Amino acid sequence: MLKYIQLSSYARNELIDITPRVEELVKKSGVSSGVVYLCCLHTTAGITINEGADPDVRRDISRFFEQLVPVDAPFDHSEGNSDAHVKSSLVGVSETVLINGGRLLLGTWQAIYFCEFDGPRTRKVAVKIVADR
Ligand code: ZN
To answer: Separation of 74 CA from ligand 1 center, angstroms?
Structure first.
């Protein structure tokens, strides 16, 4: 089962919690035990799993990446978004989450984040839900 999550970002660098959207797709799928694969279909964004309780954490991560890969570093790529390409590769464009009891098997403090590095834009995440046999 392949589904898509469409979302809009509002800042150039931003971590967006997509956990409720993924949970909703899992619930609708009726799969009680299996795996969900998340794939970011972009070269200037990514997906990561980290703390969802304190919003300071996602802001810290976003700010750290901005400092780690400055937008004005000497890049060759002429689009002006090389920092976003580098950040995308550092974070990665996919995550795998287990499904248990019809719910995402995440730690108490974990959330799934779409990582925007070249916003604001409209984005798409492919979601593949696979049931155990
Ligand atoms: Zn580019």
So the answer is: 14
pTM score of the predicted model: 0.96
Q: What DSSP assignment string belongs to 13-39?
A: SEEEE-HHHHHHHHHHHT-SEEEEEEE
Residues 57-71 have pLDDT tens digits of: 999 999 999 999 999
Cα 97 to middle of ligand 1, angstroms: 29
Distance 28 CA to ligand 1 centre (A): 36
Q: Decide if domain 2-131 falls under CATH 3.30.200.20.
A: no
Q: If you measure from the C-alpha of residue 43 to the centroid of ligand 1, how many angstroms do you get, rounded to a whole number?
A: 8
